[in-house]
Structures are given as structure tokens and as C-alpha cells.
Amino acid sequence: MPCYEEPSGLDRWIKPPSNLQHTMTDKELLWRASLMPRIKKYPFERVPKIAFMFLTRGPLPLAPLWERFLKGHEGRYSIYVHSLPSFQPHFHTSSVFYGRHIPSQVSEWGRMSMCDAERRLLANALLDISNEWFILVSESCIPLYNFSVIYHYLMKSKYSFIGAFDDPGPFGRGRYNNNMAPEVNITQWRKGSQWFEVNRKLAISIVEDTTFYQKFEKFCRPACYVDEHYFPTMLTIQAGNSLANRSITWVDWSRGGPHPATFGRADITEEFFKRMLEGHRCTYNDRNSSICFLFGRKFAPSAMEPLLHLAPKFLGF
């Protein structure tokens, strides 16, 4: 019986791993993911893909909506799921989520372990050279438009979508620690939503960082909420002109409290969709736009049935 031989052509170097359950340590993974070709033009026909990175504790209750959203667009997206390491997924082999869980570790809201999970997702997604746009979503997120609209919105954008604003109050600059200097001074300190979209170049900047990581790990401790400050501050310093300075994930803070509102079955009405989708104003490629949010959260599992029912009319899929 002939021995198996690895392909010796270009495919060996550009094909993504067939099995996401590798044995690399985080240090090895981040190093591998930071490698990038110096020649800009690809020597093959590259179809850029969106990497949807799900940061979740366990189940994906809205998976049927995502399955419908992605159907027919194979080859233009990739999926990566980071859950609690103890969670055992049970997806059918035909599901887009089957086999898409990456080696994970426990992550806690507001702590550096949350940023570690996000970097882990980015690094695994970077191993596929065709992934061009990297979107962090949770199990409570839904798409607000059909796949083609979202794909072209990202493809045509000159900027990556991450909020990074200077908040002078106690929950912004008030969290700054003077030990962050000289790498980060208080005028560079930024705050933004955890849910971001970055292009490949910025994704590599995030996974290859060691300078800012050490400062934030040491001096941005609870109640600093590092996941609100690390990426916005670092990217503002390194590539501020590449940021749209806004998130493309809609949330509702009108009810007050430390977390945005969660919507269940009774909330999902035609009036709710109109409120969520209409009346927004922002800039897109330096021009005024009414399409500002591509995703929405937070949706409870009970919202699934009415979402599936109303999605064709309001979301286009």
C-alpha cells in the first residue's frame, strides 16, 4: 500500500486546516497566524470571505436563522465558534456549524481572558488565507440584512468597524491607569463596543501584538473592563485612519443597567423591526448613510420562531 504523500504544490500552503481541533498552544497559534506574504498580489484566484466568529458559552439557539442566512453562499464565508471548553456541540453533519468549534478556554466578561478568546478566534480564522473580513458575534446576534447586502457593504468599505471614542467620564478616562504610559497615554485611551469587524490587516495587528497586551494585562484590571478598551485603544494608536469609529452591531440601551436589553418572543413584532432598522444616520465611506447596523443583539432563544417568520419580510432572507 503506497504511503500517503502531502501535496507539494501551492495548495499545501493556502488551503485552510481541514480540522479546527489542532494542538497548538495560544503562543504557537498567534505566531502562526501572524505570518503574512510580503507580495501583495496573490498567485491564484482568491475569493475573499467573511469569517463569522461566534463567542459563546455553549449552545447556538439562533442557529436555524443563521443557516437560512448563509444558505447558497458557500465559498464566501467561514465559521468559527469559541465556547466553554466543557461544552459538547451536537450539530448535524449537514449544519454550517458542524466541526467549526476551535480549541477554547474559559473567558470571563470584563477580564483579559475575554480578549484572549477574541484573539484566539481571530488567529484561527487567519489560518484561512481567503478570510478577509472578521466579524465577532455572540449566540444572541442576528443578521439584519441578507448575505449579499452585508458582503458588499464590507467589501466596498474603506474602513473597519470598531467603536473607539474618547469618554472623559468615570467609565472612560476614569479607568485609565498612569502605569499604561508611555505606550498609552490618557489622550489615546479609547472605549468601544466589544462587537467589532476588522479587515485582515488589522486582524494580524491584533494577534501579533505583544506591547499593548502586556500593559493592558497588568494595569487594566476589574473594574477596567479590558474588552471595552484594549482593541479600540491599540488600533487607534496603530491604525486610527483605518477605523470607521462605530460598531455595526445594533443594541438597545434604553432600559438602563450594565447590559443592553434582551428581546424575547413577545418583543418580535413588525413595529419592533421598523424601530430597529429605520431612522439611523451614520457615515459610510465618508458619506451620509441610513444603513448603519448589519447585525443586532441581544435576542433570547424564545425569539427564534417569530424571527424566522418575519425575517423574509424585514431582513430579506
Automatic annotation (TrEMBL):
It is found in: Membrane. Transmembrane segments: none annotated. Its main location: membrane. One of its GO terms (cellular component) is membrane. GO terms for molecular function: glycosyltransferase activity. Signal peptide: none annotated. The keyword Membrane applies. InterPro entries: BC10-like (IPR044174), Glyco_trans_14 (IPR003406). It is a single-pass type II membrane protein. Keywords: Glycoprotein, Glycosyltransferase, Membrane, Transferase. This is Core-2/I-branching beta-1,6-N-acetylglucosaminyltransferase family protein. It comes from Prunus persica (Peach).
